[in-house]
From TrEMBL:
Lineage: superkingdom: Bacteria
Protein's organism: Pedobacter jamesrossensis
Ranges of residues in domain Transglycosylase SLT: 118-215
Similarity field: Belongs to the transglycosylase Slt family.
Alphabetical list of PANTHER family matching this protein: MEMBRANE-BOUND LYTIC MUREIN TRANSGLYCOSYLASE C, SOLUBLE LYTIC MUREIN TRANSGLYCOSYLASE-RELATED
Record-linked SUPFAM superfamilies: Lysozyme-like
Protein name: Lytic transglycosylase domain-containing protein
């Protein structure tokens, strides 16, 4: 009698245990399926819009001060002066040699005085393609007139002319540039003033009621001066673009 009751009880107990196990496994199976669905679901990558290449004018600047975009007159003038300063006209290899010789001395001095690095190109525009004294009496890498040189600490006399000392004349140029910036508050205007003189440029600013270099009416030399500096920067930094076909040789020279 007891055996008869034991068999059904065993069957019922087994079924009960199986039901518990099945009930426990169901949520785990559902979670596993959800994980697989998430893994198998591919989210299409968001496509980044292609950036349009910057126009030439948008790439050009002097001391991080940009040219006025959309001004056709400025654009024509800039392109004309860039073309005039191609390799065929300026012999870029000679300018690269001057840059390799001068820039390692000029750059740290500019940085010490808090003056933008682009002012090193003024030295190339001022005297990169010429040597000696100008018809007006300016001399040295920074083309200082004797009186201006003396006022900024350089000795200029019959025995000594420190305008030809690159380090000392660069320090003097930095003092001059920094002093002009206090009143003009524009590096572009300071570059123009370096060419025409601080007083003369201020007079033109007052007379024209205009302090945007690119919109001012200036004499031919000063009106094209900053354009020349930007052109010099371009041909030194991108020689191949402007006709020089052997950048590796230039780089090897600059590394010496």
């Amino acid at each position: 009698m007891i055996k008869k009751h034991i068999v059904p009880f065993s069957v019922v107990a087994a079924l009960f245990i199986m039901a518990k196990v099945f009930a426990y496994q169901m949520p785990l199976a559902q979670k596993s399926l959800l994980k697989e669905e998430k893994l198998n679901t591919t989210i299409p990558p968001t496509e980044k819009p292609e950036e349009e290449p910057k126009s030439l004018m948008a790439q050009l600047n002097f001391a991080e001060e940009t040219l006025p975009l959309g001004d056709k007159k400025v654009e024509r003038k800039m392109k004309k002066i860039l073309a005039a300063h191609s390799y065929g006209n300026t012999q870029t290899h000679r300018l690269q040699r001057k840059a390799a010789e001068w820039f390692p001395i000029i750059e740290p001095i500019l940085a010490a005085y808090g003056i933008p690095d682009d002012f090193k190109y003024l030295a190339l525009v001022e005297s990169g393609m010429q040597a000696g004294v100008s018809p007006k009496g300016a001399a040295g890498v920074w083309q200082f007139m004797p009186g201006t040189a003396r006022s900024y600490g350089l000795r200029v006399n019959g025995a000594t002319d420190e305008r030809y000392n690159l380090r000392k004349s660069t320090v003097a140029a930095c003092k001059y540039i920094k002093e002009m910036y206090k009143g003009l508050e524009s590096w572009t205007l300071v570059a123009a003033a370096y060419n025409v003189g601080d007083g003369r440029l201020r007079k033109q600013i007052n007379n024209q009621n205009q302090d945007n270099y690119y919109k001012m009416r200036l004499n031919r030399e000063t009106g094209g001066y900053v354009y020349k500096v930007i052109s010099m920067k371009q041909i030194i930094e991108h020689p191949v673009r402007y006709g020089y076909a052997k950048p590796k040789e230039l780089l090897a020279y600059n590394a010496e």
